[in-house]
Amino acid sequence: MVDRTTESEVTFKNSCLLSCLVTPLQAGTYRLVVDEELIQGLSFPAYKRVGVHLEIPAISIATGKRQLLQVSLSEIAHALLRDADTSAGYSH
């Protein structure tokens, strides 16, 4: 059961390949959806992450069909760092 969903946007200035894909994502802004559930039995509200999804294609692409890919926040963070390095002229 999902108790809380948070949506944010991530922007890639360059194409990006994630482990869950066979072809790279196009440069663009994508919606990131994080689902969390309430941890029961605590005296304060605390949540644990139960799912992270990236909505494709990019937000700017007009389409009637969108998909949610299950991803990890750490992989998205690493992809954003690689993208920033590439944009700055560095390559790894």
Written account of the structure:
With 92 residues, this protein is an alpha+beta fold. The chain is built from 1 helix and 4 strands. It has one helix spanning 73-87; strands spanning 4-12, 28-38, 47-56, 67-70. The chain has a 4-stranded antiparallel β-sheet, with helices on one face. A hairpin with an 8-residue loop joins strand 2 (28-38) and strand 3 (47-56). It is globular.
Question: Can you lay out the helices and strands and say which pair or pack?
Answer:
Elements (H helix, E strand, L loop, with lengths): L3 E9 L15 E11 L8 E10 L10 E4 L2 H15 L5
Q: Tell me about the biggest sheet? A: 4 strands, antiparallel
Number of helices: 1
Number of domains: 1
Tell me, what's the shape?
globular
Give helix % range: 10-25%
Q: Care to give the gist of this entry?
A:
It contains one helix and four strands, in the order ββββα. By secondary structure, it is α+β, with helices and mostly antiparallel strands.
Characteristics:
16% helix; 92 residues; four-stranded antiparallel β-sheet; alpha+beta
